[in-house]
Specification:
The chain has about 190 residues and is an alpha+beta fold. The chain contains 5 helices and 6 strands. It is about 35% helix and about 20% strand. The relative contact order is 0.15. Bound molecules: zinc ion (ZN) (2 copies).
Length: about 190
């Protein structure tokens, strides 16, 4: 029988850190990335996204390289779905970093390279929607994922409509690229 124990945020962070470390080592070994520094973690993510991966892009001669890998996690998401966070969100986000490190930055966020990492390295089905049921019953707030070449961004429906109507373009503060629509997150009630 499954028992559920209430965890403190510190315990939650410890478990997420451990899952990140395990998945990171596995992926680095799988792709021969050597001693690539572990991503920096923070737990400040709020809203519907369970996790978010990011990096900085530097020019290495004429080649672009991704550096300063980081991951953000949503502790509210973890509290609701701890197993999904550890078994799904963590590898999902790490797969984004591995794509940038191994194949280079600028790939489609959930394109063939990302799917390959999910399947070959983690043995997981490459589902694009990595979002968990974060919306409490009755709150129906739609959420749209946009992406640039360095991360995914969460848009409200108001922002999304502005883009759709051609009234606004949004660019990423980190990489300067125009954000492009990826997917609408399902309302999970
Ligand atoms: Zn993703
Ligand atoms: Zn960016």
């Amino acid at each position: 029988m499954k028992t559920t124990t209430a965890q403190t945020p510190v315990e939650a962070m410890t478990l997420i850190r451990q899952a990140v470390r395990d998945a990171w080592r596995k992926a680095c070994a799988h792709y021969g990335l050597g001693a690539l520094p572990e991503p920096a973690l923070d737990f400040s993510l709020r809203g519907k996204m369970a996790g978010q991966a990011g990096w900085r892009i530097t020019a290495l001669g004429r080649k672009k390289q991704a550096v300063d890998f980081r991951l953000r996690f949503n502790l509210e998401a973890y509290a609701l779905h701890p197993a999904d966070m550890l078994g799904d969100t963590v590898p999902h986000e790490i797969a984004h970093l591995i794509v940038a490190a191994h194949f280079g930055p600028g790939r489609r966020p959930h394109g063939p390279e990302w799917q390959q990492v999910m399947r070959d390295c983690f043995g997981l089905a490459p589902r694009r929607t990595h979002q968990l049921a974060l919306t409490p019953a009755r709150t129906v707030e739609r959420c749209f994922i946009y992406a640039c070449k360095c991360r995914e961004h969460e848009f409200t429906s108001i922002r999304h409509q502005r883009v759709r109507r051609g009234r606004s373009l949004y660019t990423c503060k980190a990489c300067g690229e125009v954000l492009r629509f990826q997917e609408e997150l399902p309302d999970l009630i």
